[in-house]
């Protein structure tokens, strides 16, 4: 009888977590107070604001799984629009419970009083952080000063080199391969640049020009600690000269959008970009015969590509439903959701090999493609960026265009750029 009594008490306690108690048990609120790991199952709406671009199919899947696993939770998505931007929601006193953002934006939330260190909550509810790739989790903490955990990653971008197989076939040139250096891509570009029945074919377009090409080197235009320009040096000179060399191949001069030229006009043989599966899906319907390989590397930085923006879910400081918000995040990072996400062509932050092996399996456009090539490189450590990064990088692009046109030499370009960025920072700092 004693054992039977103990069994009954044990089952009653376990049941109280899910059902607010056995007959005569504690109410959910009181039970949660006495047992910190318990979470109320009362109906609740968790609001989530989107402050970055992400495939909404993933959000829909998360909403469905939340409803399935936690019927008491309604996950309400707030899309950015007139009156519903994150800043406007905060001003209106409607700060959401969750923000879907990317790691590069975290620092900008400091003054908005949004950031909440999830570390105690994660420990309380035994969230297993060892499931994540360590370098991705580290990239999620770039805005942390004391190792705070302001959010958990749910996906990340990758860089790749895409190529038009038909162009290579017409020129009788072997396809690109994984593991190429920038110089090897340059030599290959020369072989697939030329005329094809009156149409100029360009061998290569580097996408976002000098900025993406510079990122694997881990260099910045502005030092985040001093807000001083860091552009007039040998590494930036290397980047400027290399990109100009590509554009100086006769017939490979830049003309309009390189992305459109590759995807729509089919006049670019090779093109580097981020995760553009949706664009490739549309282009494939228009007969683009393409494949992909590992992003080109610098010899001194082998198997490294640029900044991989880490998409994250963060709980806001003002949320009154932090436990339930964490339940939503737990659903988003669950093996079930992440495996489906990987099968649809999104890179998961989880390190189990099954996510890489299943990558793209549910996307017809990726069938037979060299998708595993993208996993042969890792992103450069995401930079802690100056708040002047965006403006400075626009100035870099403009100055490079001036250099490319032949108006100034590379040394003059970098010298002028250093001065102009410093003046911009000085001007902006007193506003």
Task: Jot down its keywords.
single chain; 431 residues; alpha/beta; five-stranded mixed beta sheet; globular; disordered N terminus
Describe the protein's architecture and organization.
This protein has 431 residues and is of the alpha/beta class. Helices cover 39% and strands 14% of the residues. The strands form three sheets. Strands 2-1-3-11-4 form a five-stranded mixed beta sheet. A five-stranded mixed beta sheet has the order 6-7-8-5-9. Strands 10-12 form a two-stranded parallel sheet. It is globular, with a radius of gyration of 25 Å. The N and C termini lie far apart (78 Å). Mean pLDDT is 90; it is low at 1-34.
SSE pattern, N- to C-terminal: HHEHEHEHHEEHHEEHHHEHEEEHHHEHH
Outline the low-pLDDT stretches: 1-34
> What is the makeup of the main sheet?
5 strands, mixed
- Give the averaged pLDDT, no decimals: 90
> What best-fitting shape do the alpha-carbon axes yield?
globular
Q: State the share of residues found in helices, binned by percent.
A: 25-40%
How big is the Rg? 25 Å
């Amino acid at each position: 009888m004693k054992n039977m009594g103990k069994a009954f008490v044990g089952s009653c306690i376990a049941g109280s977590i899910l059902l607010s108690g056995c007959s005569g048990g504690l109410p959910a609120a009181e039970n949660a107070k006495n047992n910190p790991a318990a979470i109320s199952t009362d109906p609740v709406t968790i609001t989530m604001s989107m402050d970055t671009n992400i495939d909404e199919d993933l959000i829909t899947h998360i909403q469905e799984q939340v409803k399935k696993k936690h019927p008491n939770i309604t996950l309400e998505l707030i899309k950015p629009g007139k009156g519903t931007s994150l800043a406007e929601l905060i001003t209106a006193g409607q700060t959401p419970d969750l923000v879907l953002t990317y790691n590069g934006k975290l620092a900008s939330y400091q003054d908005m009083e949004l950031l909440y260190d999830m570390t105690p909550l994660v420990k309380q509810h035994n969230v297993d952080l060892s499931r994540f790739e360590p370098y991705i989790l580290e990239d999620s903490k770039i805005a942390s000063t004391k190792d705070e955990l302001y959010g958990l990653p749910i996906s990340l971008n990758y860089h790749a080199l895409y190529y038009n197989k038909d162009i290579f076939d017409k020129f009788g040139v072997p396809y690109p391969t994984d593991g190429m250096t920038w110089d090897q891509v340059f030599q290959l570009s020369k072989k697939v640049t030329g005329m094809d029945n009156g149409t100029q074919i360009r061998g290569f377009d580097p996408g976002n020009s000098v900025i993406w090409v510079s990122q694997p080197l881990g260099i910045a235009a502005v030092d985040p600690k001093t807000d001083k320009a860091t552009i007039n040096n040998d590494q930036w000179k290397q980047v400027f000269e290399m990109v100009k060399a590509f554009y100086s191949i006769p017939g490979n001069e830049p003309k309009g959008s390189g992305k459109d030229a590759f995807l729509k006009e089919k006049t670019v043989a090779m093109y580097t970009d981020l995760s553009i599966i949706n664009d490739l899906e549309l282009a494939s319907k228009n007969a683009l015969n393409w494949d992909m390989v590992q992003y080109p590397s610098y010899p001194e930085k082998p198997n490294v590509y640029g900044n991989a923006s880490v998409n994250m879910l963060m709980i806001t400081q003002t949320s009154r439903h932090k436990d339930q918000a964490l339940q939503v995040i737990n659903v988003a990072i669950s093996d079930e959701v992440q495996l489906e996400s990987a099968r649809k062509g999104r890179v998961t932050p989880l390190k189990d090999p099954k996510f890489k092996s299943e990558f793209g399996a549910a996307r017809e456009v990726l069938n037979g493609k060299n998708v595993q090539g993208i996993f042969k490189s890792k992103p450069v450590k995401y930079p802690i960026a100056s708040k002047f990064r965006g403006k400075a990088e626009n100035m870099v692009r403009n100055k490079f265009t001036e250099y490319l046109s032949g108006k100034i030499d590379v040394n003059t370009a970098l010298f002028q750029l250093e001065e102009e960025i410093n003046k911009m920072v000085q001007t902006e700092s007193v506003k």
